[in-house]
Amino acid sequence: MTAREHERALDLIMRRGTEEIATPEMAWLNSHLGECGECARYADDFDNTGRMLRAVAVTASPSLVQATQTRVRARALHMQEQRSRNVLLAISFCIGAMSSTMSAWLWWRFGGWVAQRLALPTSIVEPGVFVAWMLPAMVIAVAMLASSHPVIDRSLTMAVLGEHRKEAANDRA
Amino acid sequence: METEEAQIARGLRGRDPDVLDALIEQYQHRLLRYLLHLTGNRAVAEDLFQETWLRVLEKGHLYDGRNRFVTWLMSIGHNVAIDYLRKRHPSSLDEMMDPEDGAPFEPPAHDPSPFDMAAEQQQHERFNAALGKVSPLFREVLVLRFQEQMKLEEIASLIRIPVATVKTRIYRGVAALRPLLQGGSQ
């Protein structure tokens, strides 16, 4: 028997049960297992491992499931709020940018009038008008940057986790 | 007609809490079992269980519903476990074992049942102990193959390794369990 035949047999052993294997392939495997003691032994070990592994019972405790659901809900709510806030900020930014653009000419005229009335030099008036014109957009930009660092109220999460840990400790005790 | 996977994908895209609640209920035992076998520590597995579902919420829009949800869920769990490993043990999955007790795998807790026969119970305990001595790399593929009934290709895409490596790990995992089980029975 060649190494390739053993390899083919191992491949089929690992695939049977989870994948559809053509009848001729299965017939070949059965014939091979009848002739090859090593592959037959491996097939037995493989099946026994699977049987034993499937018999291992692992269950999640109800407190774990409940704590997870509460945490997920709290995070979903927080994300929803953050998204709504971002949408509002984006709308505000657009409105601010549009009004700033449209009012630029008026601001420039106003700056010229103030400079004329107060006899101020243009080196002060021009930057001043520029800053005043940019101010709303800058305030909104700072607000948006601040909102990108979420301040998460973790009190609910921590409370839930605390309860869960207490219950787990009680279970173990 | 919309498939179950498509419905899940739609719910995840909308971050629907009811859909997530139902998914947590439905997949609780399978995910915890996978994480427990991967980490070998129940407390860590429970923490990662919660982190996995939070990541499902955050990355839910990436699930397109074309593959089985359970495969996608396990891949999220796998990534969460890997991230945990990188933070705590930067070298390998083998180090996910609890360094304090030397016997890393904590046999899963299960309620005593009047229907459990003593011999069967003993056999399960012996198997759990043997499983704990197997590398988490092998344990992971064994769990995915036998408990999740995943195809080799699914396991390969989930862990992001070649199919040939999956087969090698399964082969070596089964081979590693053989003497341990035989030794325990003597």
**Strand and helix order of chain B:** HHHHHHHH
CA(first)-CA(last) distance of chain B: 56 Å
According to DSSP, the number of beta strands of chain B is: 0
Uncertain segments of chain A: none
Specify the oligomeric state: heterodimer
Shape of chain A: elongated
Strand content of chain B: under 5%
Q: Helix segment count of chain B? A: 8
Tally of distinct domains of chain B: 1
Q: In terms of per-residue confidence, which ranges of chain B show pLDDT below 50 for 5 or more consecutive residues?
A: 95-110
The total number of structural domains of chain A is 2
- Percent strand of chain A equals under 5%
Compute the number of helices of chain A: 6
User: What structural class do the secondary elements of chain B suggest?
Assistant: mainly alpha
Rg over C-alpha atoms of chain A, rounded to the nearest angstrom: 36 Å
Helical residue percent band of chain A? over 70%
